[in-house]
Fold this protein.
Amino acid sequence: MIGLSLSLVARNQVTPLRLHEYLGDEGKAFSKGLLFPKAVKQFYSYHNFRPAWFEAGQESLRGELYDLLDAANRWGLNEKDYENRFEGSFQNLNGLDDSLRAEINLTDAALHFIHDVLYGNSSPYLAYDGLNYQPACMDIPLLLSTYLKAGKLNLLLQDVEPKRPEYINVKKKIIHTDSVIRQEDFREVIINSKVISVSNIPLVTKLYQLGILDSAGKKISDSGLKEKIRESQRLLGLLPDGLLRTNLLARLNVPLQTRLEELKQALNTVRW
C-alpha cells in the first residue's frame, strides 16, 4: 500500500511560474527518473502550469489519486510500478525543489497509470511489431488536465477504459480474485480427494476462490456441485464431463496468486 499522509504540505509553495521554470531546466527536473517526461511537460502546458497536486487544499485530490494507484491490482496492473517511482519523494519535503519534484513525479505516475489502463503495461508476447506499433489514440495529458479541471478525477478511468465484453469479464474475475486473496482468512488450498461432495471442503473452497461458487459456506446439493465442476472444466478449457479427473485437479490446484497474474496478462492482451 502507498500509505502516504494526506496532510503533506510543501514548505515552499509551488506556483505556476516556479513550475514553468523548473520544467524548463531539464538537468534538474528530468534527471529524476520520469518515464513520461514529454507527456508531463504537455500536461502542464494544458494545465496552464498550475500545480495539480500540491497547491493548498489539494489534499483530498491527492488522496483520490493514491486510492486509484493503491487499487492497481483491480485494474490488472501492479501498484509497485507506480508507487515506487514517487513514494520516496514525499518523505522529506524540505524546500521548493523537493516540492516541485514531488509534484512532477506524482503527475508522471498518474500519466503512467492511465496509459497502462488504456493500453496495458507490456506488449503481448505475440504482438506484431513489424511497424513498431505504439498505441497512442488518446491524448492522455489532455485527458488528465480536463478531468482535474472539472473535479472529476474519480470518473476518468471508468469513462475511458475499454468497454468490450471480454475486457469486462476478465476484469470482474480479477476483482473477485484480488478480493479473495486480500481476505484475512485467505489461504491456498490443495484438493486431494476426487469425491464430488460438499464434504470435500478444499474443493468447495477452491470453487469459491475461483468465482464458480458465490459463497464458500453456501449450501449446495451434490448434483449442483457436479454442475459447478462442469463449469470449472469449461473455464479451464477441459471437457465438461462433470468428473474430477487428475487433469482438472492439477488445474484447480494452481495457486490463486498465479491465476491472478494469468488474468492480469489476459487483460493486458485484451487492451492491446
Residues 16-161 form one domain. The radius of gyration is 23 Å.
